[in-house]
Amino acid sequence: MLESIQLVKSFGDVTAVRGVSLVIKPGEIVGLVGASGSGKSTMLNLLAGLVDATEGTVKLNGERVKGPSEQLVPGHPHIKLVHQEYQLMPNVSIRENIAYSLRFYEKRYQDYRIDQLIGLCRLEAVQHRLPRQVSGGEKQRTAIARAIAEKPAVLLLDEPFSHLDLPNRELIRGMLLDLVRHEKTACLFVTHDSTDALSIPSRIGILQDGHLVQLGAPMDVYRRPYNAYVAQMTGPANLIRAKHLPLMGIIHAYQPNALACVRPEQIRLSDRGRFGGTVRNVFFKGAFIEVEVEMNRFVNLTFLAPSSEKIKVGQLVGLEMSPEAVHWMRGSAS
Ligand SMILES: Nc1ncnc2c1ncn2[C@@H]1O[C@H](COP(=O)(O)OP(=O)(O)OP(=O)(O)O)[C@@H](O)[C@H]1O
């Protein structure tokens, strides 16, 4: 079990991480989401023991993880961090890159484990090629195979999906889930992509200016975001001031400036709709369309409809939603 207790990291005047407490259990995947500069990479480096914390502690199975100033070789043997740039050795094959992590083991075990990792990471076809002769997705899988070779207790991944096309993302996603299940690794990955953040982990944490503002099951965080930032980091969101909601048929007891979040899929087309507006944009998304509607000078709404729905820009549409679709949040939107 990896634990961060009230972690703080300052670089001079800049405080990148502000009192983050988090537990990752064996066999669990946690996704850490945040805007650029919110402290995600700093958090990974702290958890890996690669930078010294200004305050607070990281513990692995109850034992404190030392920072780089306390040891000759920075890092921890049971905590592996996979960087965005993969950092493979360029002049040896994919197989030898993986083998390097196992060089201190007996040859028979090495061969057995490399074959196992190559199978798990689906690298059979490219194992004898050099890193420059394989795709980005294959490099990413090699970096992961190398990191997990010695069965680390913790696997930390920096933006593991950011450079990958959809088939490779799905491959790595499946591989990570298999890995965590079979080897009971505690895994944390950082991302700024809401789809990856919601679909893969058992829990999702949202970093805002170095604070962990919300942590929970993806569905709970998506449905009940703590503030506007969390709502926007976890998917498309209509952020609506309380004073505009009565126009949409929602009666409530909130202050005029209180802010509500309504997810686009909660708003439906309706001939008998209590509100509506003029269609400003229609975006085809495959299985559905995303439609932007100007309700009035102050309120623009986005809703989803089946792709089969014929909606044109400039058209007037009627809409409806139930009062349960409205989630009240902290904070304000500009
Ligand atoms: N070595 C450093 N020296 C000074 N400031 C730093 C250092 N590393 C990070 N920072 C600052 O700390 C804050 C958090 O940076 P961090 O790289 O952790 O964010 P991030 O969420 O990973 O961003 P991105 O998604 O863009 O990689 C930023 O304001 C950054 O400029």
In words, what does this structure look like?
There is one protein chain. With 334 residues, the chain is of the alpha+beta class. The protein folds into two domains: 232 residues, Rossmann fold; 92 residues, Nucleic acid-binding proteins (OB fold (Dihydrolipoamide Acetyltransferase, E2P), Beta Barrel), CATH 2.40.50. It has eight helices and 18 strands. α2 packs parallel to α4. The longest helix is centred in the middle third of the chain and has 18 residues. The radius of gyration is 23 Å and the shape is globular. 39% of the residues are buried. The model has no long low-confidence stretch (mean pLDDT 92). Bound molecules: adenosine-5'-triphosphate. The site of adenosine-5'-triphosphate (ATP) has 12 residues, from β2 and α1.
- Largest beta-sheet characterization: 6 strands, mixed
Count of separate structural domains: 2
Shape: globular
CATH topology of the largest domain: Rossmann fold
Label the structural class.
alpha+beta
Number of helices: 8
| Rg, Cα atoms, Å | 23 Å
Provide the CATH superfamily of the largest domain. P-loop containing nucleotide triphosphate hydrolases
* Order of adjacent strands in the largest pleated sheet: 6-7-8-3-9-10
What low-confidence regions span 5 or more consecutive residues with pLDDT below 50? none
The CATH architecture of the largest domain comes to: 3-Layer(aba) Sandwich
Helices and strands, in N-to-C order?
Answer: EEEHEEEHHHEHEHEEHHEEEEEEEE
Average pLDDT number: 92
State the separation between the terminal residues, measured CA to CA. Answer: 40 Å
Strand elements, count: 18
